[in-house]
Amino acid sequence: MDKVxxxxxxxxxxxKTLKLWVSRNGLxxxxxxxxxxxxxxxxxxxxxxxxxxxxxxCGKCRDKADRERYLKMPxxxxxxxxxLVLYNTDTYFFDAGDLFFYCEEHNVKETxxxxxxxxxxxxxxxxxxxxxxxxLPEDGEVPHPIQAAFDxxxxxxxxxxxxxxxVQGKFRVILEG
Length: 177
What we know:
This protein is α+β, with helices and mostly antiparallel strands. It has helices at residues 32-39, 59-72, 96-106, 128-131, 144-159, and strands at 21-22, 28-29, 42-44, 50-52, 84-86, 92-93, 115-121, 165-173.
């Protein structure tokens, strides 16, 4: 038989003093670093600039790193047809007119913009067994009439050659001034 220990027995519990850090938000932490992070609003970037605590670096350093990543991208000759996008934005140019009006509105030259060629996104076929994976019994398959309907739809999807949309690609574009 196991040893019997009553709730009144000194062996049942002992009073200990814990050292806790309490952030300015009133939350208690066992380590200072976490409490200080919870209680702060800003931190210092490696460069010395202030930044909101949610960032790993300040805006200037992020912009510099972003620019360096853009400049490391391989270049590709622009074909004059593929849509372009401003690097890491959702500003797209589907023709020369779009780009011209953007430059006019923002008082910039086309050659100064960080332009990237877009890649097309096409419709993809659908596997009904994956689509219905949560509804099918283990090792179950979609019934034949539904599979046939998916097969017909997938055939039409495969035949459709127009992109659904365009996304930022892997090549930067250098326009001749």
